[in-house]
Amino acid sequence: MRISLVLICIGWLVIVKAYGQQEKEVRLTSYVNPFIGTGPVDGNSLSGNNYPGATVPFGMVQLSPDTKDIPDWNAASGYDYNDPTIAGFSHTHLSGTGVAEFFDLLVMPMTGERHTQAGDVNDSSTGYRSKFSHDKEQAKPGYYKVQLLDYDITAELTATTRAGFHRYTFPEQTHEGYILLDLNHTLNKGAWGTKIIQSQIRVLNDHTIEGFRVLTGWAKMRKVYFRAEFSKPIVRNLIIDGEYEYENERVVNGNNLRAIFDFDVTDGQPVLMKIGLSPVSTANAQENLSSEIADWNFDGIVAAADALWEKELRKIVVEGSEKKKTVFYTSLYHAFLQPNLMSDANGDYVATDYVTRNNKEAPFYSTFSLWDTYRAAHPLYTIVQQRRSTDFVNSLLSQYDAYGYLPIWQLWGQENYCMIGNHAIPVIVDAIFKGLPGIDIERAYEAVKNSSVTTHLNSPFKLWDQYQYMPEDLQTQSVSITLEMAYDDWCVAQLAKKLGKTSDYEYFTKRSLYYKNIYDTKSAFFRGKNSDGKWLEPFDPLEYGANGGNPFTEGNAWQYFWYVPHDIEGLIELTGGKSNFSQKLDTFFTLETAADATNHNASGFIGQYAHGNEPSHHVSYLYNYVGQPWKTQHYVSEIVNRLYTDNHAGYPGNEDCGQMSSWYVFSALGFYPVNPADGVYAIGSPFFSEATIQLENGNRFRIKTKKKSEEDIYIQSAKLNGKPLNVPFLKHENIIKGGELEFILGKSPNKKWGTSPITRSLY
Amino acid sequence: MRISLVLICIGWLVIVKAYGQQEKEVRLTSYVNPFIGTGPVDGNSLSGNNYPGATVPFGMVQLSPDTKDIPDWNAASGYDYNDPTIAGFSHTHLSGTGVAEFFDLLVMPMTGERHTQAGDVNDSSTGYRSKFSHDKEQAKPGYYKVQLLDYDITAELTATTRAGFHRYTFPEQTHEGYILLDLNHTLNKGAWGTKIIQSQIRVLNDHTIEGFRVLTGWAKMRKVYFRAEFSKPIVRNLIIDGEYEYENERVVNGNNLRAIFDFDVTDGQPVLMKIGLSPVSTANAQENLSSEIADWNFDGIVAAADALWEKELRKIVVEGSEKKKTVFYTSLYHAFLQPNLMSDANGDYVATDYVTRNNKEAPFYSTFSLWDTYRAAHPLYTIVQQRRSTDFVNSLLSQYDAYGYLPIWQLWGQENYCMIGNHAIPVIVDAIFKGLPGIDIERAYEAVKNSSVTTHLNSPFKLWDQYQYMPEDLQTQSVSITLEMAYDDWCVAQLAKKLGKTSDYEYFTKRSLYYKNIYDTKSAFFRGKNSDGKWLEPFDPLEYGANGGNPFTEGNAWQYFWYVPHDIEGLIELTGGKSNFSQKLDTFFTLETAADATNHNASGFIGQYAHGNEPSHHVSYLYNYVGQPWKTQHYVSEIVNRLYTDNHAGYPGNEDCGQMSSWYVFSALGFYPVNPADGVYAIGSPFFSEATIQLENGNRFRIKTKKKSEEDIYIQSAKLNGKPLNVPFLKHENIIKGGELEFILGKSPNKKWGTSPITRSLY
User: Fold this and answer.
1) How far apart are CA A61 and CA A341, in angstroms?
2) Does this model's pTM top 0.90?
3) Which of B196, B406, B641, B652 has the fewest C-beta atoms lying within 10 Å of its C-beta?
């Protein structure tokens, strides 16, 4: 214990020195609660599907407890706060997804009987699982600790970018401690054809092991190599390949591998295990490990991880209530968990065509949940992760090179076609328009254009040209695709225009208006239409679609009605003018749905508004476009206050790789990118008394908000750099230049502020 | 036609110039009949499972017709001579295996209707298949030609090391010719979990396509990249991914891809397609293609392939009957088809741990069907493929590095554990004892030893140490494994001795005698024994085992009785002396089996002797060890004359990647490696009047045989370098030094020749 304390002190001194902060200053990492989003508060509700484990910003390794042995969509991060037992700690996790994947290299310490199966989640007596209690569990950025009650083992985890670090303290009076390594731990093998193709565990010496697994699953083919070292000598090893057991072998190859390593823990010293990962080779895993964790200073790595997080979180410093700061910094933390680095220390990575390539100039990132994250997460990165945004864009372009079109949902460097649209396009176009350096614009345009003309799954561009809408009989999810494709086309058109490609500009601009072709004036909704030009009957705007077999994707006609972010004036016109439009918005936020008309991805309701899924995310800001910004302020505040919590539920639906969090971060600051690629933010209802954005160019942008109580949610007046701001919009360039935005809030709406008509000049 | 003739002439001139031969000299390639072994002569018999297509010696590409759409063990090469239709031409094949695998990138030309499914083997009207006739089919080394009767298309194929070259001549008066590329063509998807994980077809321009497929099958995970060019512009392309159709797209990704490319063939010119393969990347495939097929000279590539074969075949020049020369040179051809090169022109290859590595110094080979080929194929390579033998050994050692033990059956660089034993060991030990340069002997010893102590599938060395035999209840196929493991152990012991590792030598020598522990004196057979030391009951020496669930592997107690190649004196002693032993041999060659007591891998019977499978292969030579070499001469002659044919059946069982052929090559020369790693060959009954081995060191070894008729099969006398040779054995070093071995044969046995007792001094 003494050594441990000394190390913590050293770690702390390092941090204090690095940041020159006074000890009294509260670290922003202390506001992050990694348990937020890890499990619903009751059985019928949803949570974020986040994980509580240890990781560094945008890292390759997420070392986190899995309560699920075979995780599925229900707890896609592997961990459900409501589960009573832990099956072990695996090294890779997705944050907030609806589909489970990764869970590489599960590690579990144990004493007593050497269990080789995880056992039942509710009965830890049947396998290597252990009961745990949230009283004896702790998580903070880069660090996780839990008492494994069945074994009285204290398990601590930390991580670097490409390596995990475990510290297991066995109970006193114990002689033998075991550490299990399970290479067969994956998502539910019934899903996505998941299976281990081949794997290896090799015992190099009594302190060192390495190996790999090759598997197919939601990611079509992943290779995961590792190299691990233990602080104590292995006194015995048992490697199990399904029905075969191998004792003290130097290497076992198989497709159902588990190993148990025995250690002498009589001296009361913990067993430490550090493990480097690589998608390329064990040699790279070794290099990743040695370059990131040189020695056995666990607490030093904890402190280093904390310092990395502090550095990232400090990009936005806010003043406000402890609860809101907790939700805010946890949201920022969740937003910065991914995209995940996928290249090794030496620059090697596996491209989308499964070819190992090398890029020493820039890191390669993956985990692009683009249907979610293009909306707010990527715009947020263009403000506070500018250098990484360039790397993200170039990583997206790498898929174009290897695959022929840009990612839809890129996982471990590979395309899984989850959801619809081609929303790498707005991400790339936005980054270019925002002037991020390091992007080859002509190459980017080629990628963006070819991704918009090369027919692929759910993107039948020939039908798009032929029918000028998606016919449901030829392409299901047709309304959602029509709307989202029109938006992507608008983005392509803007870039074409910038590059002087006039005919392309005209072509894609024309396509960007095809959304109008599925507007049914009679019902005043976008509706599914077949290739014969006839509307699908019967039509119920409350009817939900899932992911196929219906014109709507994870939503209904109400939720998708608003999806014309590039031509809101056109949508208003289509609806019959501002009055009709605002009335429709009012109905949207108040119309209750019959209970059986939801699917699991629509949740977090305010009327028909479903904050639990992305199609709604921009809608509360649309009142700004019809001169009623106080209603935006009202509903944004309601969402902030009612649908985000500081308990373990956290979110009203999947957190979705940072999107749900980025919505909160933007809304807390007081604005939101309704069109994620036009450099304009719609102003909502800021709630921190002060928020300072530290930009990478050295500038600062400060948002000050004067209010008397928490009920003061309505903007009374606003100033930008000392001058009155009367439109409810803010340009990206104003943020980047640095400056100050001041708001005065009050309890009642000021129906005169922000009512100026929107004009093109703003864009 | 004129151009084609000119090109043939140019090709011929190139060859004539390269070899300085007179035009009158008959090319040895003309004796090769690639149809040998391609199909049984009647439905109940077996053939070699060879393919008739185009390939170069030890090449990566085997471009050959597949009559099977989903091949299985029945025609594991994809082609059955008895089938009436061809489904297309794919680029990779195994020669003579019992398991089907590869079949990458099936290409099929067609006219008329664009079929997208292969259709039924007996009904070419249902898909893209075409009827064909052996009358209008031709094959020679590096060239295959067939008339596709349904389309009246002349299809011609040739190959370089890593590229295939197609020439399709469409019928006159035809305007549109189609070429189909099927990336979903594999072995039977019901077997080995075979499925396409991901694939891509990309149309780079109107002459060029590229792509890849990643799949799992008998080889756990293969990546096959390609780059192809057409001699004519593609006027239209249709790419099908299962239910989806893509017309004139630039790229399609999917897991069920077929493409049809349309060409204007109005001008009567053929459509040529050249295609480079790579296991690493499309960039490498492109480099492989451009470095091997620079232009469109199809006939030049045919001539070059022929020249490569002529060079290899000319390593043994024989004089004899046309029929025997046909069988001999086809056997030599089959022996030189594999191991297959698996590294790219730039040295890249995928190692056994799925990591892309590079070796610019030496090629990397795979396709090691070692349980078969260690017996005679690899010993043959140590005589006539010495440089490649070093590469083979170093390729085997590469698996040790990546996998922890040496190959059992290595396919596409990966282990598939087919069969039993660790017979890379004799291959490596033999190469070292034969003094092949370029092998790091200490490294090789480490690999050989660790492969003999690291328990893995079917090699439970801890049981071996504990029981000193394989207990059937703990390790099935126990008798076969005990015998074969004892032999491998003897090999390890010899290398240990050479390196002065005395304790290792003693340990492995002790293990090499464990075979005695399963000898049942009562039945006078090796028998299955359980861990309790009791023999398995009931015991029937005629009962066959397959590949598990029985002490015997693809054989019975009779066939496995003889498998002590390293201690034949010990076996003789065990049997009760030479007389008992020779009587037992007599019974073996005469005892008929009940018809229902065979399995498909035992075939080609002479009594219990089953030449159709490997365990019998050395047995006819065992009479030499008991002073009755004339019986060896008798049975070897019977096998040669009865079980090898020059028709399409060819072999009495799977040709097994060169083993069945190598047996013939050795036996034709007059000797055979009974112990494949002791550098001694047992003399049989040479049948060519003259055979000259051209060695890589420049020496020549000539075998002259005087006989009056084909019935003269018995050795009357022999001379080695002019001195009488009275033992029926020949040392490897005598061959390598060069020299002359003369035999005089007669119609009746000379029971005085070769009867000297064998002595250790020979070894």
Assistant:
1) 9
2) yes
3) B641
